[in-house]
Amino acid sequence: MTRAYAFDGVVAALLAYLIAGAVLDPPGPAYAGPAAVAWLSGLAVALPLVVRRRWPLPVLAVVTAAAAIATATGVVGLGVIVVTWFPVAFALYTAATAAARRASAIALAGALAAPAVTVPWLYLRTGVTTADAPGSEVPLWWQVELGVTVVLLTAAWSIGGLIRWRRALQTDAARRLARDAVAGERLRIARELHDIVGHSLSLIAVKATVANHIAEEKPAETRAALLTIEKTSRSALTEIRRLLDVLRADDDPASAELAPAPGPADLPDLVERLRSGSFHIDLELDGTAELPTAIGLTVYRIVQESLTNVIKHAGASRCRVSVRAAGGEVRIDVTDDGRGRQPARRRRVGQGLIGMRERVTMYRGRLVTRTRPDGGFEVSAAIPYTAVEETA
Q1: CB 264 within 8 A of CB 288
Q2: Which pLDDT score, from 0 to 100, does residue 247 have?
Q3: At what angle do helices 86-98 and 2-24 cross, to 10 degrees?
Q4: 79, 75, 71: which is closest to 118 by C-alpha?
Q5: CA torsion angle for 242, 244, 249, 253 (degrees, to 10)?
Q6: With the C-alpha atoms ordered 92, 96, 99, 101, is the resulting torsion angle positive or negative?
């Protein structure tokens, strides 16, 4: 802002000098009064421009009144009266960029009315004609003087209006982008909730069914199943609470501290919850510490959804999970020894596979889901990433 005031100060000083020079040495008859009056006139018309950005409409009113008084009293350069109205053009431009449409139109009408009255009045009062200044470079006609002034003021107002319209478009575009960003974030949260609830409820249902069938014969496995149900439900509640907290306002005093998003480091705990006496999971992690948070969350969700599908549909006894990150790409492989992909299974897990594919595609990755030739099912994904820079 200080730089803007300095710029306007320089412009005001130059315009004051230009106006005083035009009054003292015009194409037509020179001003017969004291030179000090010419300088005071230039300063009165131009100096208010220093604060035009802060008070655009008051400054326009002041400079228009000063220019009108100078014109009516003859303290102008005949033949170049438009020079005295240069500051009015600057002020009118600023008012057009800052004021509402109606106020801007009223400002234009007032700015045009002032020279429309004072310029013809000056020529009619003094009776100056081209014959009074045969060496004049321009014709001394009030119609020409007024026309040039009107064109200048109208052009300045039009440019200011265009700038205001452009700024309004930019503001509207920024508002739409912000609204789209919010909508995208809410969609991401909805997908997260789908993954959490879908995985957790599926696992709880499977473990509850197992516990119900083996409650009397195998109490140890029943307790393990109930323990898994307890851990899964608590974990799901924690993640759901974390996501719902994101939807709260930042200044909401009830907002809880957000837990970190799950990532590859949480996969061992996930695998431990899903293991049972009849279902074994092998987990292999390599180079996952450098993964960005968003990529890590995607890896976690892909593995989580894949294991949920294996437990629900595959009837597998063993599953292998491999997550390897190297060379700017993380590769996820989940294979099982179950039944493979049956037609009924395709219908049931379609949404989960679609969700995984959307996550991978968002990062321009690749996803392959297929029945293995030697039995079982395979989910394979490759996602490019930029490694997180380590800080000292």
Answers
A1: yes
A2: 56
A3: 150
A4: 71
A5: -60
A6: positive
C-beta separation of 79 from 138 below 8 A: yes
Residue 290 has what DSSP assignment?
A: G
What's the chain's average pLDDT? Answer: 81
Q: How far is CA 135 from CA 18, 75, 93, 125, in A?
A: 21, 21, 35, 22
Helix/strand/coil (H/E/C) assignment for every residue in 210-252: HHHHHCCCCHHHHHHHHHHHHHHHHHHHHHHHHHHHHCCCCCC
- pTM for the predicted model, two decimal places: 0.53
Between CA 43 and CA 15 the distance in angstroms is: 8
Q: What is the rounded CA–CA span in Å between residue 81 and residue 66?
A: 13
In the chain, what is the straight-line distance between the N-terminal and C-terminal CA atoms, in Å?
A: 38
132-141, 168-177, 203-212, 307-316 — which one is most confidently predicted on average? 168-177
Q: At 284, phi and psi to the nearest 5? A: -130, 120
Going by the DSSP 8-state scheme, the letter that residue 311 receives in this structure is I
Sign of CA dihedral 170, 174, 177, 183: negative
* Residue 123 to residue 289: CA distance in whole angstroms: 85
State the span(s) of the chain assigned CATH 3.30.565.10: 276-392
Is residue 323 within 8 A of residue 330, CB to CB? The reply is yes
Distances in whole angstroms, Cα of residue 68 to Cα of each of 111, 113, 119, 255: 9, 10, 8, 61
> pLDDT tens digit string along 179-195?
776 677 567 666 666 66
Counting Cα atoms < 13 Å in the Cβ hemisphere of 67 gives 36
**Amino acid making up residue 149:** T
Q: What is the pLDDT of residues 305-314, one digit of tens each?
A: 888 888 877 7
Q: Return the CATH fold of 276-392.
A: Heat Shock Protein 90 (3.30.565)
Cα distance between residue 244 and residue 365, in whole Å: 28
Q: Write out the E strands in the chain.
A: 280-286, 318-326, 329-336, 366-371, 377-384
The three-state secondary structure class of 17 is: helix
Neighbours of 388 (CB within 10 A): 13
